[in-house]
Amino acid sequence: MKKDIKNLTLKELEGFFSSLNEKKYRAKEVFNAIYKEKRENFSEITTLSKELRKTLDNIFYITTFKEVSRKTSKDDATKFVFELSDKRLIESVLIKNTNNIGRTWFTACLSTQVGCSMACQFCATGKMGLIRNLEAGEIVEQFLQLEKISPVSNIVFMGMGEPLLNYENVKKAIEILTDENGRELGKRRITISTSGITPMIYKLADEIPSVKLAISLHAAIQRKRDSLMPGLKNYPLNKLKEALIYYNERTGNTVTLEYLLIDNVNDTKSDAEALLKFSRDLKFVKVNLIHYNEIPSISFKPSKKEIEFQKFLLSNGLRTTLRLSKGTDVSAACGQLATNSKESLQFKI
Question: Active-site positions, per UniProt (predicted)?
């Protein structure tokens, strides 16, 4: 059975060419062709001999997704649904950003799993259950598909799935996309968002310290977090805080705490006080308060106390922003990603 060549790092590809008694630099030529020149067939890599191209074609394939649908929101977020080789579906989002002086750039929001096992009560993806992990090449291919629209300068792993429960494939995808012989994206332009898989936060700090970290916190009171995010009961807040202190000390990076404000659920003064207390021992920290995006079949509503909640945190010295997620009108915003076709639902667990 053929293998996806996009699952290989440069080092692994060099090892393959060495096994054929070919020079290692052939791997760099292939990387350049796929990730810089965006070649999708081995026949197009004319720096290689016809014989070598045939050998590659007999052993590997260059994965390309079928685009199932594309919707662009009023605020310049484009949601894509891609079909994988096994007919399952994933969603990715291309977000256009513009600053106050008119400079624009694009961020890719990538998925790491088909579905998710965390079962967060406010999230559409969590209602799917976990179907499977994405391979490294499937994560990379999302990025390459989005770059067909516009060059991407930032990646956020905030799509479908829990990235740290697919850590090795996410790590490999980052290695491929940041390789200087390929796409050469800067690691500091990449953010991994996790619900709080504490053992993997230590690993992330040790192995990919340049990558930024965001925590989907959403409650700093344990019983409320257990209710909102039942898949995290084995990762209590005190252990999460210890892991974040280690991450701060090991990397020197700021930790971003993501906090959806849900009406009459996690938006009281005691919730704000708990969030402030949780943040105090973190040396480098900021809070992103997020407007809750309503999801059909989920009864939660956006908080009416967003400004009040933010003012309390700011007045106590905690750096806090209030963020409106883009793409709400095409279900591309935070928590709204979930494939709902027959192809995906038949694998629901």
Answer: 91 (proton acceptor), 334 (s-methylcysteine intermediate)
Residues 55 and 91 in one domain: no
Of 14, 29, 83, 91, the active-site residue reads: 91
Element (H, E) at 304: none
Q: Is the entire prediction scored with pTM above 0.85?
A: yes
To the query of whether residue 343 is one of the catalytic residues in this protein, the response is no
Q: Which positions make up the binding site for S-adenosyl-L-methionine?
A: 161-162, 193, 216-218, 293
CATH number at residue 10: 1.10.150.530
My answer on whether 34 and 142 are in the same domain is no
| 70/325 Cα distance (integer angstroms) | 18
| Residue 60 CB partners (closer than 8 Å, separation 6+) | 2, 3, 4, 5, 42
Residues facing residue 94 across a β-bridge = 78, 108
User: Does 8 lie in the same domain as 92?
Assistant: no
Total domains in the chain come to: 2
Query: At 236, which CATH number?
Result: 3.20.20.70
**Is 334 annotated in the active site?**
yes
Q: What is the pLDDT of residues 146-178, one digit of tens each?
A: 999 999 999 999 999 999 999 999 999 999 999
Q: What is the pLDDT of residues 239-254, one digit of tens each?
A: 999 999 999 999 999 9
Structural domain that includes position 282:
66-345
- In this structure, are residues 92 and 148 in contact, taking their beta carbons and an 8 Å threshold? no
